[in-house]
Amino acid sequence: MFGDLSGMMDKLKEAQQEVEKTKNRLDSVLVDEVSSDGKIKVTLTANRKIKAISIDDSLLSDAEELEDYLILTLNKAIEKATKINEDEMAVAAKAGMPNIPGMDMFK
């Protein structure tokens, strides 16, 4: 019985290591989003860390318009990054999960 438990613990540790590797890798996956008219461009990692924001000079004179553009564009980029992050993390977690009865919700 303890041999099986030990094996499952090893598998869980492997899964945790795989998740950590995936988190580190997602820091290098970049997601770009551009506003519909191209006036704002944002780049974030798949871990949802902002790396760059490019703003067209025409938006600098109107703070309210700039804020609206930033909110819309950042939210779109965050949605994309979150989707990539969730998909990759699910794969990483599933790959290392031991076969435990009743825990098939991860498959």
Give the spatial strand order of the biggest sheet.
Answer: 1-2-3
Largest sheet: 3 strands, antiparallel
Number of helices: 2
Mean pLDDT: 85
Give the CATH architecture.
Answer: 2-Layer Sandwich
CATH topology: Ybab, Chain: A
Counting structural domains, the number is 1
How would the blueprint of this fold be written?
Blueprint (H helix, E strand, L loop, with lengths): L1 H25 L3 E5 L5 E6 L4 E6 L7 H34 L11
Antiparallel strand pairs: 1-2, 2-3
Structural commentary:
- The longest helix is centred in the C-terminal third of the chain and has 34 residues.
- 55% of the residues lie in helices and 16% in strands.
- It has 107 residues and is of the alpha+beta class.
- It has one domain: Ybab, Chain: A.
- It starts with a helix and ends in an 11-residue tail after the last helix.
- The chain is rod-shaped, with a radius of gyration of 20 Å.
- The relative contact order is 0.19.
- It has a 3-stranded antiparallel beta sheet with strand order 1-2-3, with helices on one face.
Q: How would you summarize what this structure contains?
A:
With 107 residues, the protein is α+β, with helices and mostly antiparallel strands.
Features:
107 residues, alpha+beta, Ybab, Chain: A, three-stranded antiparallel sheet, 2 helices, 3 strands, 16% strand, rod-shaped
